[in-house]
Specification:
Blueprint (H helix, E strand, L loop, with lengths): L20 E7 L6 H12 L3 H14 L1 E8 H17 L5 E6 L2
Antiparallel strand pairs: 1-2, 1-3
The structure holds phenylalanine amide.
The site of phenylalanine amide has 12 residues, from α1 and α2.
């Protein structure tokens, strides 16, 4: 008989879920100047003038627009910084985050 003991092992299955991504959403308002919204989008979200214009116009027409999708902490930091940029100028500009489905 063999001296090698074989221990049965049950390997625990560890399901690793990839971290959720978060949308940053730009909300329309009646006061923030269009060009200011575009400037904030370019500065905080590294958009070109053309990309920023499209997002700004979409939010203006529909009420809101997804600006981009990021890891949670990055989405929250960008939304906060962009909202604060408006507030610092007295504008009600608002960016929020929400998890992707
Ligand atoms: N609705 C604003 C205006 O006409 C522009 C705006 C667009 C503000 C998108 C906020 C978001 N001055």
């Amino acid at each position: 008989m063999s001296d090698i003991a074989i221990k049965p092992r049950i390997k625990a299955e560890t399901k690793i879920e990839r971290p959720r991504l978060y949308k940053v959403i730009l909300h329309n308002d009646d006061f923030t100047p269009r060009e200011f919204v575009v400037a904030v989008l370019m500065a905080e979200f590294n958009m070109t003038d053309g990309q920023a214009h499209k997002v700004m116009i979409t939010a203006d027409r529909l009420g809101s627009c997804v600006v981009g999708v990021f890891a949670r902490d990055i989405a929250e930091t960008k939304a906060t910084r962009a909202t604060d940029a408006g507030r610092s100028m007295g504008f009600p500009l608002l960016f929020t985050t929400e998890p992707e489905e």
